[in-house]
Amino acid sequence: MGVDRSELPAEFRFIALALGFGDGRQLGNSCLEGIDFECLDVAKLKGLLARHRVHVVFCAALKQMGLWERLPEKLRVELDTTARRLQLRQLALLAEFLRISKALRQEEVDFIALKGPVLSQLLYGNPTQRHCNDLDMLVRSSDIPDAIRVLSSIGFKQQDLLGIASQPLKDPIWSRLYHVQLIKDGVKVELHWRLSRNDVLINTPIEQLFASKQRVAVSGEEIYTLGKRHLVDYLAMHGASHCWNRLKWLLDIKPLMESRCEKLADHVASIPSHAQEWSLEPSSQVVDLYRSLLVSLDTGLETARSASGCRADQSMTPVSLASSLCREQLLAENEYPRAFSNMLRRSWVLFTLHRGFGEKLRYISTLLVWPLAYEKVKLPRELSFLYLIIGPVLWGREQLRLLVHRKRNK
User: Fold this and answer.
1) Whole-prediction pTM value?
2) Which is nearest to 14 in space by CA: 3, 27, 34, 29?
3) Which residues on neighbouring strands pair with residue 87, listed in sequence order?
4) What is the SS3 assignment for 22?
5) 262 close to 295: Cβ distance less than 8 angstroms
6) Sign of torsion, CA 196 200 202 205?
7) How far is it, in rounded angstroms, from Cα 196 to Cα 237?
8) Which of 95, 115, 107 is nearest to 190 (CA)?
9) Tens digit of pLDDT for each residue in 284-331?
10) Exposed (0-12), middle (13-18) or buried (19+): which is 224, by Cβ within 10 Å?
């Protein structure tokens, strides 16, 4: 499972060590001393920071470690300029988030913030430190119509091709899908009524999530997010569902996991004092996948992790296989949406995490289903594998209809 040092590009190693992976968690050690800062490929370094969405936290880590001045001056200026631009963007997103939160509270629509500025505040003590592109909120399915109405009143428009909010709660669509999107001026909000479409990855009942939610102060506002244990499970599920292809997602869960097995280096995150008291013992396949990948990454950075309970069980073949594929994805030049091979890798990881044949078949069916099939044929969840046939047939019929329509209008 180990990764040779030669397999990790110097620029990737530099970023990972600065963020606290491997020996980088120990301030004052020599793990970064061997890196020739003048010989770094600047274009590759900046590309990796953008690809892994860790630009701001990386710059902050170098400054706190006293390594910032060792970078070439031109690179420091470029990194600082980009960091300021990104944080201004995060400030704008934070302002929109607070506006949405206030509107939902005024209409008494209960919600839980997922990731975004709240997670940034929880991990770093700063709502603009963590990079995010959209805003995710968990609401009860019965509150979806009210939540959409509130968001529409402040300018958001639905991106809901299926008319989800208008469907009765007994409709099977509520068990097949898990969120609806709304957009305003480039800001995307996702309203979730489940944490994942994939029950094998996480299936915690929503009422249990609301019962254990925790309060976080964000810019003077009290916002709820997932409880301590559920937050770890959710972040592990989210990272696994995306093949752990960004260091940002590993960094999201790393402080929460290490708060119970070893003290996190101060330059990586400023954890609230109560975090050290958390007793987190998640034991799902996706959490095991995270542990296995972290051990593999640390081995690639030539470190020796102590047997403190954080090491993954290497005897678990499905998890070990998934971890190997995730490591390849993490080091890939492009993310999976931009490369077909990477998308296949992500799909295979999720496939290996499913235990039985029926679950594997159900997962495959979700890869090939089009919204048109969900809209026109409402099958019970246990028969969802039939979308393997229905989806392509309905999609092909629609393409044929459009082709005929275009020829007639020429």
Assistant:
1) 0.79
2) 34
3) none
4) helix
5) no
6) positive
7) 8
8) 115
9) 788 888 988 988 888 888 654 443 444 444 455 678 888 988 998 898
10) middle
